Amino acid sequence: MASSNGLASLGVEGAQAAAHALSLPAEAYGNDPQVELMWAMKAYNHAEVYFNLISSVDPKFLKLTKSDDKIHSAFMESFSDLNLEVLDPDLLKSPEAKERWRPFCNQFEGVVEDFNYGTLLRLDCKKDYTEENTIFATRIQFFAIEIARNRGGYNDVVYNAKPKQQKENKQS
């Protein structure tokens, strides 16, 4: 997963302006396409960094937040039935699912910074971020699911695939 431009293409002043714009409350904007583009770029960059991280570091040893244990415990209590290997978008986005997720997410307000920011989440943990394999979720949903995937060994496939690809490239 490589980006050819991203925030770096904005330059220092552009990146500072983007950071300032993204720190303002959503009510300060209508449906401004520039702001939506900046949010999309920020979410994409977060996804790229995370995928590179689980590709290079054994996911079982990753700590994503200061509250990983609390997030994981609450998640397992509320969503132990969720298939972590391949997520069903309806279990994240349907009206019923939103009602189920809301109390879980809200308990992390003030605990996890930007807990309700939009973040990209892979549906199938064995695959990279692609249009077909990505859903928009809140940051706390991302943390909860990815912490559980990391601790459960679901992201090992990504971690173990990277060295194999590098070995194949060296042999070519």
From TrEMBL:
Q: Which residue numbers delimit the Polysaccharide biosynthesis domain? A: 35-159
InterPro entries, per the entry? PBDC1-like_dom_sf (IPR023139), PBDC1_metazoa/fungi (IPR008476), Polysacc_synth_dom (IPR021148)
The highest taxon in the source lineage is Eukaryota
A Pfam family annotated for this UniProt entry: PBDC1
> By its UniProt entry, which PANTHER family does this protein fall under?
PROTEIN PBDC1
Q: What is this protein called?
A: Polysaccharide biosynthesis domain-containing protein
